[in-house]
Structure formats: C-alpha cells, structure tokens
Design brief:
alpha/beta; 349 residues
Length: 349
C-alpha cells in the first residue's frame, strides 16, 4: 500500500500540505530583491475601464469627465417636456390679474433678452435705486412708435436687479381690447392703467411700471424725439400718494430710433380706429420687413426714488399732485439729456 507521497510530483510535495499564510488586507507588502513594491489600490467595480474614474483628493471617486456633450441638451429637452406637460395639464398658477410667472420666465423673457442684450446692446444703470422688496412706482418716458420700451424695461429690470423683481406694467385700454395682445399682456403681468388696479398692486408690495405720456409719447414724430409730452392729470401720483409708495423715475434712450416716425396718416388711423398710423423709413414701404426694429444703442438709468409717505394726506390735493408729477417729469427729462451726451451715435457700439 503506497504512502501519501507515493505517485506525486516531487516538486509538488508540501504544496498543499503546508498551510499558506494569507497576509491581512492591511499588511505591508513583502520585499522582493531588497525593494518593496508600490502599494496597489484595490480594484473597484467602477474602475474596470481605463479613464472611467479618477481618485479624488479625499480618496473618493469623481468622474474624469464631468459632463458628456449630450447631457446639456438632454436636460434642456427634459425640462422642455416637463414644462409642456405642466402647461397642457394646467399644473401652473396665475395671480388675480392673470400674471403667469413661469411662462414669463420660460418664454417671454428669453425672447426679450435677445433684443435688449444682443440687438439693442442695452446698458442699465442705477438699479440700486429700485427697492429690493416692497412696493415702488417706476415711471418712465414712452417712445418708439411700437411700445417696445415697456417690455425691454421689464425684462432688463428683472435680469439686472439683485432680487430679480417683476415689473407689473400698466397699459392703455386699447392694449386690452386687442384679442392676442391682451392675453399676452395679462400673462406677462400687465393690467389696465387705472388707479384701483395700481393701488391693489402697490398695496400687495409689487413693482408697478407706468408711462404717463401714453400714446402721445409713443406716437410722436422723430423730429420731437426725447421731448417729453404732457403727463396727463397725474393719476399715477395719486396712486403713489394713497399707498405711500416711493416713485422711481427712469429714463430710456434708444427707443426713439427703432421705428423713426416721419409722418402720421391721420385719416387712415381714424379708419382703423388707431391712435396714429406711422410712416417710417421702412414701413409701410417694406411691408412686414418694416416691423424689424433698427439696432439702436439703448441706455436705461433709474433715478433716486422720490418718497411720498409724508404726503399720504394730500392724495386728493391737485396742487400737490401736479407739483409731484412735474418733479418726476423734470427728473426724467434732465436724465435724458445726460444720457444723450453719453451716447452721441444712436447706432454706435
């Protein structure tokens, strides 16, 4: 009967008879030829492919490439689909005036941003004069044949203000009688220019934008550019006085050159029930192409606020209302002159 070693390879004797000593995971590597090999990092399931992960400074793992080229567009598409789903399902909110902040941020402001930033190269100053919170009445000059200045002002103020505040615009009755324009105006936060609506917005702590010149400012000839028209009866001042709201004058340079009005065809305006029918260098000669605004250089400056809290008892005093309205008008007119000196070329850089 053969022994246990009989028939085995002599070189294999003791290979399985002597128990092998397995070093502990934290044991120091054995020396070979007087040199200790460099420690090897334990393989992880996520490091099977070269370059897939890199060791972080604290021993963790971080992606070697933070974002793949398609990830940005994947997120944009996913966000767009989620937005459409909310709109189609009605899962969004509007306030009592119809203001839709989500639609304004997602659709209207990006379009206006292309205009004021890239096309008009708008420079905005004096934003620190607009309150960070609480109500204020922003009063500006009106111009441009088409009232783009109100929309540009609201988008630029939202983007430049540290609190990204919305400007609730007050518009003429005509704006809210036009089928499509009325709905767009409501969605972007506009409402009719009347004292009850203005006072409700101011009482709720909103920023309210008003252009007291109305159609007289928008529809004036190019020869009268940057000459402020009459401010009406000062209704905006009464709304500010009743609520004790500060008035922030704002001067806008650039709107007069986008559609320079050379003439007003009054018979045609009466026929179409419009406040004016403009003739510009490009309209109606070029038809729809004449609606493309000229790329004038815009400057917008917010002036220091005018307090009204000490005059709340004088809201119905015509003399106080007139004097305050004249102060606002004069402030805007003087600021326009200063801005025009800073911008000698209407179409410069």
């Amino acid at each position: 009967m053969s022994g246990p070693e009989e028939g085995r390879d002599p070189q294999s004797v003791g290979r399985f008879d002597v128990p092998q000593q397995v070093p502990a995971p934290d044991a120091e590597p054995a020396r070979r030829n007087g040199h200790r090999p460099a420690p090897q990092a334990a393989p992880t399931p996520t490091s099977r492919f070269a370059g897939e992960v890199d060791a972080g400074p604290a021993g963790g793992t971080e992606p070697a490439v933070s974002d793949r080229p398609g990830d940005h567009w994947d997120r944009k598409v996913a966000n767009g689909l989620a937005f459409l789903r909310r709109r189609l399902s009605g899962d969004y909110e509007v306030d009592e005036f119809g203001f839709d902040s989500e639609l304004t941020d997602a659709v209207f402001h990006p379009l206006l941003r292309l205009l004021y930033r890239d096309w008009f190269r708008t420079e905005v100053s004096g934003v620190e004069h607009v309150p960070v919170d609480g109500p204020a009445l922003v009063v500006g000059n009106h111009s441009g044949t088409v009232a783009l200045d109100a929309l540009i002002l609201s988008a630029a103020l939202h983007d430049k203000h540290p609190a990204h505040r919305y400007l609730r615009l007050l518009g003429a009755d005509l704006v809210f009688r036009m089928p499509v324009v009325s709905e767009l105006a409501r969605k972007t936060g506009g409402t009719v220019a009347c004292n009850p609506d203005a006072e409700r917005l101011l009482g709720g702590g909103d920023l309210v934008g008003v252009f007291p010149e109305g159609f007289k400012g928008v529809g004036k000839l190019y020869a009268d550019r940057y000459k402020l028209q009459r401010f009406g009866r000062g209704g905006f001042v009464s709304a500010a006085l009743r609520t004790g709201t500060p008035i922030v004058p704002v001067a806008i340079v650039g709107g007069e050159e986008i559609y320079p009005m050379l003439a007003d065809i009054k018979p045609l305006a009466r026929l179409l029930k419009l406040p004016y029918f403009p003739v510009t260098p490009t309209f109606p000669l070029l038809g729809p192409l004449g609606m493309v605004p000229l790329p004038s250089k815009w400057l917008i400056e917010f002036c220091p606020p005018i307090p009204t809290a000490h005059l709340t008892d004088s809201a119905d005093d015509p003399l106080v209302v007139f004097n305050l309205a004249d102060q606002v008008r004069e402030t805007i007119q003087q600021t326009l002159h200063t801005l025009l000196e800073r911008r000698p070329d209407p179409f410069g850089p």
